[in-house]
Fold each of these.
Amino acid sequence: MTAGARLAIDVVTIFPEYFDGPLSASLLGRARSAGLLTVDVHDLRAAATDRHRSVDDLPFGGGPGMVLAPGPFVTLVEGLYGSIEARPRTVLFTPRGRRLDQPLVQELAAEPALLLLCGRYEGIDERVHQLLATDEVSIGDYVLAGGEAAAAVLIEAVARLVPGVMGNEASGGDESFTDGLLEYPQYTRPAEFRGLAVPEVLRSGHHGRVAEWRREQAVARTRAVRPDLYAAWLARQGGRDPSR
Ligand code: 6GU
């Protein structure tokens, strides 16, 4: 862990090189260069004790595949923080975890430090869950080969909420999910392209009508594509959709 930054993230993985691209590009690269965010990636194999640097073993009870052993995880975490108890909030990526959503992202972004543990193979020894994980997180209902892609997703989602990271862009307000609705359609020039015109209201200069149109579009889109989000939004409105 590196001191000083607004958010210090440690990642444990058997594929450290996986993170080279995502952490250097665009927003994350700039945030790290500016010292707003640190991401230190640690190779689980560095904590292996045997000659072959093995981190996995056969499952007790039989079955296919290999299981990541608890020893290297605990050794590495103790090396980083001095003890298990001194570790920061710790996310273990697993398809059986809680689904990542913006409220959880906001919660994690408010922490001073995070430890992210990536699994691979058929699974991780249950003692890693018990001893180290404060949170078990999945990024959706599909199966990945490991937690690395999920960790990259979480890092990007959390980083953009760190004060100063988003630069010019308004970091709150209008975006998808901040008020529980999907984003409204956006247009730039030209006003007509391949026979498709920008809606007249957006060119009217009438800020009130523009805001109203965007709201209607966001609500209609959410109702059509994400009935679950629409129902939750409707309940927060007191059951009334002002556009209907
Ligand atoms: Cl966190 N891990 C794996 N292996 N698969 C996933 C996932 C995580 N989230 C969705 N699918």
Amino acid sequence: MVAMDSAARTFHNLIAGEWREPLSGEYLENRNPARRGELIGLFPRSNAEDVELAVAAAAEAYRRWRATPAPRRAELLFRAGQILIENKQSYARDMTREMGKVLLETGGDVQEAIDMLFFMAGEGRRLYGATTPSELPNKACLTARVPLGVAGLITPWNFPMAIPSWKIVPALICGNTVVLKPAEDTPLSAVNFVNALIEAGVPNGVVNLVMGTGPECGAPLAAHPGTRIISFTGSTEVGRQVGQQAARLFKHCNLELGGKNAIIVLDDADLELAVDGALWGAFGTSGQRCTAASRLIVQKGIHGKFVERLTERAARLKVGDGLDPNTQVGPLINQEQLETVERYVEIGRGEGAKLRLGGARMEEGELAQGYFFAPTIFTDCAPEMRIAQEEIFGPVVSVLACEDLESALEIANGVSYGLSASIYTRDVNAAMRAARDLETGIVYINAPTIGAEVHLPFGGTKNTGNGHRESGLATLDVYSEWKTIYVDYSGALQRAQID
Ligand code: NAD
């Protein structure tokens, strides 16, 4: 028998406006990664049959939803934003309990969903197309965004409400209906978000939620011929499979994948500011962000002082349960992630990097109940080392020394990913050259690699994705396509390129 927390209960899928049991009758446990004994709830272990029902419900609702005027759709999204504001604290607590990051950060995660709802609610009265002159007299030319149909959305656990909102909200404003498959580690935050949309009045079938594992529930959603757009955020490995499946059916496909982000610190940088940024970038969310700073490329003149200060400050970070307001670094998400991080520490040691701090699981006292790992710093790293090339997704940072801006940029760009990068310098020329030459989708000057805002495009180059952007107005291109409309009011046959 499983020990149930007093608040623990059994949750269901949302299909056509009804909370339904999974057809398998099976459920997955959702446990607190800071206290493994605490069961948060039982969530559906759905399969292809549940996906089938959800896609059918979304297809049925699509006809009415696409015909609903966008400003009316927007009003519902605005109302959902207000509901999120009212529930922000409790949603943040639920999120910390199910995935570990500290309350301050889970509050930020909910806030990002609020921001996205308000931003896209405004878009309901814009969704601008173009009008342009025709080459012929008495003829009008215009373009309009049109929805695609049913959107299949697959999301990871590290931003359990923000990332679903980045997908659901623009999909809805454009007139699509959706089926969300959230990560199996964070279904409660998805339930909370979807509940807010329902409470706001989003009609039955417009938003559907099926929960379960990637292979059993995510894969059938990606492969379903009824989903005309697949938007996936997660690992590069799974993203490749999802992209290949989508390509076979000529579906629109938006992939937001891994990162190996670098902060460059030049000799003239404000040392304390750079250390602040490195700490937040590397150890915020325990390093489990796609934009986490996992490489610090530091110029030789400041390298010694920087490493000393960084190590001193990182050693003082308070690791613990994210619900404790004093905690700065929470647990890792699960056993598998803990083992991955342990494996990379061994790889780093074997490659000859110098372990300056951490490097081990933390098991003293209450920490033994969760997946805690000490903030870890490797120095003397070479660019080709695996710890400087591969995404670790944990509180492990590799410091690399560099001669000058040129060599820093070469190291920063010398990885297969291209999500985010940053530079600390007081030299505007160096900053502008870095902004131009860093091969990433996002660049920060004198700020760490994390900190995206919803009204700007988010995404990366190379193996970080397939060229789309989430967030900002750019995301509208993912969830709509253009219709070109010609209106000939001449009353005669006019032939383009001929008359
Ligand atoms: P993951 O790829 O293991 O899982 C992501 C989602 O895909 C989950 O919902 C999972 O159940 C599902 N899934 C797994 N196998 C599947 C399959 N065969 N078919 C369809 N769906 C499947 O990733 P994760 O561990 O949850 O998240 C961490 C990864 O996400 C990291 O690589 C991180 O960099 C990346 N990430 C990227 C961004 C971004 O915007 N670029 C943002 C956050 C996280």
Amino acid sequence: MSVMRKYVIAGNWKMNKNPQEATQLIEAIKPLVKEAACDVVVGVPFVDLTAALEAVKGSKIGVAAQNCHWEKSGAYTGEISADMLTSMGVGYVILGHSERRTYFGDTDVTVQKRVRAALDAGLTVILCVGEYLEQREQGVTGEVVAMQTKIALGSVSQEELSRIIIAYEPVWAIGTGRTATAQQANEVCALIRDTIASLYSWDVADNVVIQYGGSMNAGNAAELLAQPDVDGGLIGGASLTPQDFATIVEAATKAGK
Ligand code: PGA
């Protein structure tokens, strides 16, 4: 099987922008990413999904939610199911983001359940993994990231892996302006690919898109995206500025994977 990886640049807007602002931001991004040769996705708050789906019409931009519950329906006040997302036309969901793990009690096990539900509903998953600073300093980054990846993929078949994108996001680099070096990013992305190869095979591992995330911006994107095992980016802060986000998309297009 040949390597078919294509860059995926995804914005993670987090808890920013109301529906009206979401429309404006997407309308500003649209013309700037018209020539993109990579996949472009915007991850918006739940209440912005309708506006975002409307605004991306006529473009190739995909829309992601930032979480989903693992049950199809029921007594889960405040939650949103994967089926609800697909019923709207949403194509992607970000799962296991470190902010969900840190502030909202997500664990490797609940992430695994969310991944299962999202795949069953037909979504493509952007699965986030990454170590805390203390873990990096103790030299256990590899173990932590391999464990997160293995547990999250626990019920995922080889066929379903084509709907899994992995985002390596060192927690110490998120929103801090402290980016991993290109070499650090590549090293861990390569390790994640190794882990996937050990679970499935190299044929499939070679085709999984693995993004880097954590203070990626217009200035450092080209170097990070030039790394052989970095296949895109999950971008927080810089995804809220159309020109910066477009510059990252352009860097991916130029890098040409
Ligand atoms: P950042 O966020 O680009 O603002 O560091 C990345 C993320 O949390 O996905």
